[in-house]
Amino acid sequence: MIKRTLIALGMVAAATVSVQADETFMDDRWYVAPFGEYYYTGKSPGLVSQGWGAGLGIGKIINEYFNIETRFIWNHFQGNATNRPIFGQHDNAQLDLLGGTVDVQYYFSRDTFQPYAVLAAGGASWGGHENYRSTRFIGEAGFGANYELSDNFLLRGDLRYRANMGTCDNCGNINGFVVNVGFEVPFGEKPHAPVAAAPVAQDTCESRDSDGDGVNDCLDKCPGTMKGAKVDSDGCLIRIELHGVNFKYDSAELTDSAKRILDETAENLIVFPEKRDIEVAGHTSTEGTNEYNMRLSIRRAHSVADYLKAKGVTNQLYPKGYGEEYPLVPEHSEADREKNRRVELIWMGD
Description:
It is a multi-pass membrane protein. GO terms for molecular function: calcium ion binding; porin activity. This is OmpA family protein. It holds the Pfam family OMP_b-brl. InterPro entries: Bact_OuterMem_StrucFunc, Beta-barrel_OMP, OMP/PagP_B-barrel, OMP_bac, OmpA-like, OmpA-like_sf, TSP_type-3_rpt. It is built from 5 helices and 13 strands. The strands form 2 sheets. The protein has an 8-stranded antiparallel β-barrel with strand order 1-2-3-4-5-6-7-8. The protein folds into 2 domains: 2-186, Porin; 236-347, CATH 3.30.1330.60. It is 18% helix and 38% strand. The termini are far apart. A hairpin with a 5-residue loop joins strand 5 and strand 6 (133-150). By secondary structure, it is of the alpha+beta class. The protein has helices at residues 2-17, 84-87, 256-271, 290-310, 334-340, and strands at 30-40, 50-61, 66-78, 94-107, 113-127, 133-150, 153-166, 176-186, 230-231, 237-241, 278-283, 317-321, 342-347. The longest helix is centred in the last third of the chain and has 21 residues, at 290-310.
């Protein structure tokens, strides 16, 4: 009887294995699952109300939703005077259950916490005294969960209702609830879905900005723009603010640091292909009168233009002073006034 039952269950298991796996779920490892078992039978005829046991499951992960598992079960019951329909005249007789089932587990999730429903069917042999032996069919249904502590170790527990039906006269059906607690150990490395490689940017003119002016090389009509320059939508120069071009106090005489900055600017202008005329715009802070600051800004613009020409710049340079008319920031401190004292190169015409 047990042999025929297990053969039939094997056919069911084979059919279940054929369920198509989710392409994004790659785990198909084998595993072992030792467990301890508590079996509560209540008022089943001729049997004590509870037994203890252990077992071992050997299973395989089929796909994202299903596991197939073969389980070997042992339960032990201790008899007393009230259990004589099965235990006979022995007040302290013992009875053991040896059997196995094939489980189909359906997983609702494969995350760290893995709840599942289970259906199981199999057979068992009961025996223990006076040559008493009973062959029984086992059917189980219940719910449980795994908790993944690592890729190769999971805690497991489930609650099942077991139907235990005898094949002999006066055997009685010994049904009840079963609590299983144990762990699962998969074999091998857990496969993980490959991480999609980041798309490789195409090396085209649209992906390049060779001069760093914010306009890609496809649209840039003025390639090779000098660093720090403001450009239009075509990448052509609008203006450059000469940061650090300072003058001696209340004077148009360039400081040594200002000359070093203008030397580098002159080198760039000489090799730069854009030869449009350039306005050299001088600006001051608000210290002093407006008339005085206007004259000072004109003198400083001339000083910068003359220095650039002396260094070999061939663009036409037109110095112009704006005094304190166009401050960059409101003046609340010396740092603000320093920002407003500046010289700018502004490209003229189309």
